[in-house]
Design goal:
It is a single chain. This protein is an all-alpha fold. The protein is globular. It contains 9 helices and 2 strands; from the N terminus they run ααααββααααα. The N and C termini lie far apart (48 Å). It has a single domain, classed as MetI-like (MetI-like fold, Orthogonal Bundle). α2 crosses α5, α4 crosses α5 and α7 runs antiparallel to α9. Strands 1-2 form a two-stranded antiparallel ribbon.
């Protein structure tokens, strides 16, 4: 069966040179696509997790009694929301990367402890996290003040009130906006190409640089991959919304 599929795409490339699906009949190119897809999925998952974590912590810090802490969070939000994510990525990798400690696994080559993949996760997570802070803040402000006063009267600390009462209610309200931001984040992971992270776009470019006739098929594969990835995120978030829905809160 596999041999028949490979032969079909070989013949397709021979008959229509502009549609050379070389990764379907050459193992080395298929491995590139598989590796790129796996790196893209990992990058998306890690960035989603850390950006949400940044948003939750940042929203809590915004309500801190400390004016200095609130100013730090606001400065972070303004910096990451008002500069292009690609510029941020290049700044983290090329500027801050120069000060990254190194280690020598073989005793000769000095390797930074944070790889290009690590910098991509850090940069994109902080970029999306700045928007998530504002999303969670809006949800927190929508929680009635009487709810917080009730938790105070029961002896809850500020952290307990936030973690057990305010955040679960705010999350139900801000899930639609959070959904949109996470979808944008998944699409923004393609910018990791700029620092040679071997994700789907990077691997696609390496393939069509070697085989220009594979450019159209690789672009088609890129569209399909990101449509599927975004579809998974959207469906997962929609199911989460329905599962967490409470009358009077959320959508």
């Amino acid at each position: 069966m596999i041999e028949l599929i490979q032969e079909f795409f070989r013949q397709l490339a021979a008959d229509y040179p502009r549609w050379n699906f070389i990764f379907f009949y050459e193992e080395r190119q298929f491995d590139k696509v598989a590796e790129g897809l796996w790196v893209t999925v990992q990058l998306s998952v890690f960035c989603i997790f850390f950006s949400v974590l940044v948003g939750v912590v940042g929203a809590w810090m915004q309500g801190s009694p400390s004016r200095l802490l609130r100013m730090i969070v606001q400065g972070y939000i303004q910096f990451f929301r008002n500069t292009p994510p690609l510029v941020q990525l290049l700044f983290f990798y090329f500027a801050l990367g120069q000060f990254t400690p190194t280690h020598s696994p073989d005793g000769w080559l000095e390797v930074p402890i944070i790889s290009n993949v690590g910098w991509a996760v850090i940069s994109l997570s902080l970029f999306a996290g700045a928007f998530n802070v504002e999303i969670f803040r809006a949800g927190i402000e929508a929680v009635p003040e009487s709810t917080r006063e009730a938790s105070d009267s029961l002896g809850f600390t500020r952290l307990q009130t936030y973690g057990y009462i305010v955040l679960p209610l705010a999350l139900r309200i801000c899930l639609p906006s959070l959904n949109n931001n996470l979808v944008n984040l998944v699409k923004t992971t393609t910018q990791a190409f700029a620092i040679a992270v071997p994700e789907m776009l990077y691997q696609s470019v390496t393939i069509w640089n070697d085989y220009p006739s594979a450019q159209n098929p690789m672009m088609l594969v890129l569209f399909v991959v990101y449509i599927l990835l975004v579809g998974v995120v959207v469906m997962s978030m929609n199911r989460w919304e329905r599962a967490m829905k409470i009358p009077g809160y959320g959508t």
